[in-house]
Amino acid sequence: MTMTTQVHTASTVITNAVEKDRKEIIRMMKDIFYKTDPSSMYTKVSEVPKISLYMQNVSVESLEQDLSFVAKEKITDQKIVGVAINAVRPAKLKLKLDDPSLKLVQSKRERTLLQLWNFISSMPPNSEKFFDNDDDIFEIRYLVVDPKYRNQGIATALVNRSRKEAATKGYKYMRIDCTSHFTARIASSMGFDCIFQMAYEDYKNPSGEQIFHEIIFPHTKILIYAGKTCS
């Protein structure tokens, strides 16, 4: 178990995510991320009345690695208003785009979103140019902030705290898959390099057909940022 550490912003305190936070983190994913993230909006998952248990579990499965952080409202120190769900990617991990488990997902929209995420996770194809093959990679999988608390530096603080954790744990590299322009802007401002980008309009299904047609500015691209945890 990681020792709980706290970092303060003007309105929140950032601390390690623990098991008792799981229920509230799932609520944030259902009510905020799956409703407002561009990848969810473009796949129409944002319009699904009830997110499946499978999707809920996918979003929090890495919490047990004890690497994630939450931002809690300062006054009560209880309400979670932001979360960075982090994980470690094994150096030798080879992701399969045709994950057979996706056949168990009944919702076509959810399946399309998971296929998109698998594609993003498998990029760039020449990752050895950016990472040492023997080094595991610390990654921010999901970055979510309550809309009422945005523009207060909470997301940036969560990324900073995650980066420090990665360095403390001895991970040399950190990766952020950005499905939102705002997440990409944070990664860029912190000195990470863009190692992959693709316009949402260029993403195609296995049959070569364009999937996304209604793109909302400024969320026009999928971007992957990466860099060393210590400068």
TrEMBL record:
GO molecular function terms listed in the Swiss-Prot or TrEMBL record: aralkylamine N-acetyltransferase activity
Reaction catalysis annotation: serotonin + (5Z,8Z,11Z,14Z)-eicosatetraenoyl-CoA = N-[(5Z,8Z,11Z,14Z)-eicosatetraenoyl]-serotonin + CoA + H(+); serotonin + hexadecanoyl-CoA = N-hexadecanoyl-serotonin + CoA + H(+); dopamine + acetyl-CoA = N-acetyldopamine + CoA + H(+); serotonin + octadecanoyl-CoA = N-octadecanoyl-serotonin + CoA + H(+)
Secretion signal, residue range per the UniProt entry: none
InterPro entries associated with the record: Acyl_CoA_acyltransferase, GNAT_dom
Enzyme type, top EC level: transferase
Keywords assigned by UniProt, alphabetized: Acyltransferase, Transferase
Segments forming domain N-acetyltransferase: 12-218
Pfam families: Acetyltransf_1
Enzyme Commission designation: 2.3.1.87
Lineage: superkingdom: Eukaryota
Name this polypeptide is given: aralkylamine N-acetyltransferase
Organism in which the protein naturally occurs: Pediculus humanus subsp. corporis
